[in-house]
């Protein structure tokens, strides 16, 4: 009788352990997902600010029209130059 009681307790502990592992995994996913969302939000804000600055557009509709008009051309001709210096790092002469 004592062995059955011990077996039942072991099974209950194992069941709780499985539940806790699942909860831990879900919480970790939520934390990591939050970080990814923050990074994406920051990137979108920065990209939008650059787009607004150089194309002087202040509405979503304007931005979408510009993106549609220039999108394919930019994708085809996208060249990354090794010697290009970002404007914020350029020296004023």
Main beta sheet: strand number and arrangement? none
Tally of helical runs: 2
State the share of residues found in helices, binned by percent. over 70%
Write down the overall mean pLDDT. 85
Tally of structural domains: 1
Organism: Bacillus cereus
Coiled coil: 3-30
Protein name: DUF3847 domain-containing protein
Keywords: Coiled coil
Provide a descriptive summary of the structure in words.
This protein is mainly alpha-helical. The protein has one domain (2-75). The protein has two helices and no strands. It has helices at residues 2-55, 60-77. It is elongated and about 85 Å long. The termini are far apart. Keywords: Coiled coil. Residues 3-30 form a coiled coil.
Give me a quick take on this structure:
This is DUF3847 domain-containing protein. With 93 residues, the chain is mostly helical.
Key terms for this structure?
mainly alpha, 77% helix, elongated, single chain, 93 residues
Secondary-structure topology with pairs:
Blueprint: H1 2-55, H2 60-77
